[in-house]
Amino acid sequence: MLFNSFSFIGLVLVTMLVYYIPRLSKYQVHTLIISSLIFYSWNNISLVTLLLISAGINILTSYVIGTRKTNNLKLIAWIGVSSNLLLLAFFKYAGLISLTILKDNSISDFLITIPLPIGISFFTFQGISLVVDVYKENHFRNDTIIPKSLKEHAKNILFFISFFPQLVAGPIVKAHDFLPQISIKTFNEINWEKCFREIVLGYFLKIVVADNLKDFTFWIAYPYFQGQDSYSLLTMLFGFSCQIYADFAGYSLIALGIARLFGYNLNDNFKFPYISTSFKEFWKRWHISLSSFLQEYLYIPLGGNRKGEARTYINLMITMALGGLWHGAAWSFAIWGIFHGLALAIERFFTKKSQTKIIPFVKFLKILFVFLMVSVAWLLFKLPEFGHVIEYLKSIAQNFNKNANIILISNILIYSTPVALHHLYYLYITNFEGRIIKRFKFALYGVMLFLIITNSGIPGSFIYFQF
Amino acid sequence: MDSLPNFYNLSLNGQSLFDGLTIVKTKENAPKNVFIEINVIDRGEDSNFREIISSPILNTLKRNLHIFRTDKQPLAYVGSKFVAPFVNVCFKNIIYKVNNKIEYEFPGNRLDNGKKSRTTIFDKMLSIQIDRYSLDVDTSIMNKQFTILKNQVEFLESKGVKVIFFEMPVNNQLIHLNKAIYLRAKVRNDFPNNIFIGIPSNIETYKTSDGVHLTNNESNIYTSFFKKAAITATNK
Predict the structure, then answer these.
(1) Tens of pLDDT, residues B32-50
(2) For the sheet containing B196-197, what is the strand order?
(3) B104 touches chain A (CB under 8 A)
(4) Contact at CB, A411 and B76, closer than 8 angstroms
(5) Can you list the alpha helix ranges (DSSP code H) found in A429-467?
(6) pTM of this prediction?
């Protein structure tokens, strides 16, 4: 069920109606669970079984640990985490492993046909977060979060795993951020202004910017891009960066806004990533829920930066490579992760050597450089074969003698402008001009609402659905 | 479509014949004749497209308020009126006038200007198509598609529509490969009572830009051929 479909809007409205009936307030969590299962099963009801199995594993392991039903807490935690990873590995990476190791045989033929359940990368990570948080008790005491009743606990965890705004494309919600929020909510508590802003901006980015840009960036496909001129290829590269940001950030904002309608606050997932002056800063601004998950549950347990310089770089590379592979079952995603890992490592090395203050012009150049490198890396998302990425870059260098595709360039520029303005506004918000714009923010939201109604593109799936 | 008056081209870019049939089914007045291209029968229906076409709200809005149509949308309008001319001016001094922008194919795969880089692109595209056309046909998928097609054709014929099939000309190296042979035979077998307009007898002279898409010149030549064949078919 797409966020920009009438069926989704209908589901949200009906759910809200039932959710806030005072007499049914003690069934609020049940209402959201039912809506979430309807949402998830809309296109393929059989996938609900997998969601329930995943939830079941996490319910049992977290309950046993949380209520100290056994002395082997570490073993149970390992079982919980491993089960989540095994589910993910089987459904997501079996095909890749079989193609790489088993090559062509009947087993690999079978493994390739296993469908990729939508959202599996997100809800298995949430399950891991739950098991680890309950085991370590770093953020909450289990007796305050884990009810004595298994039935009550099962209800809360099924809700946490399946909550529909973030179920299929994030943000990845950590147990310690979400579970303490579970309580009865009232209609008066809704922060309408924040919900409105998040939802309007989210839909604008998704259906006006991303859905229109995808009609022009689809030429980034082998071998068709080889016939395009260099200017169009560069513009498409820029356009695809804006598209992937608008698509994902838009979806995340919608998820935040919808969750807030039901009284649940999810953390921001994007903070204007394309104004980053370094790769380290980029990863504090892009897909924040994933980078903070990897930091907390992978990088730090591996030792982080506490085991010496060499080990720090190794931990960084492992974390980023696995983070890349999380995005998709193809070696191109691992290469993408390694690329970012290398960038972070090199940056870390040179930053340590030089601590000089940077002037604004240099800061601007750094922003451009990081944006350019990140954009080139995005090609691996659009062109899964590494060889095709090289061909794309070669075509940029070689096709300057071709006519520029004015229509394509113009359309990409016009639909990318909101992303650029969005980032510039954030950069200058404290300046005089920024404060002027802030006073007329209401007009901006009016314009966005108008464009959502009149300028939506042909609907496309969220890019991150495939992860 | 001025060369084919009273024809509506529902072969939309990137869509399938089933999407075109979806459009036909939404019309209140059924057409007299429907011509179905068989080349990409294996391409399935686009559910998003069907949702948009059959959406009463979106459809009504687009029909009655032009601002909702893609080319009249506010940003598209601003783009075409202001941004495109500005970009054009910026590029004016550096656009190189290139003759014969589209690569033609000739018998023997030599190209008109002999530049190696263009030969490579065309050969790559043709080799991709040769690979696709040479694959063993997945009969289970094809049977499923043809079953859906049969239902659609029966529905149209029950409304008094005459359904005629035709095969678009492609590169000469493709017409004798697995996929092309299979589709031709399957259509003739499953729709024995329907007229089938085959490829022109002089197919080897037809030029494409990538093995499957006719060049501008060839499109005009084929349109003349199709027009004559269509008139004959509809009068039978």
Answers:
(1) 999 999 998 888 888 777 7
(2) B33-37, B162-166, B196-197
(3) no
(4) yes
(5) 432-439, 441-454
(6) 0.83
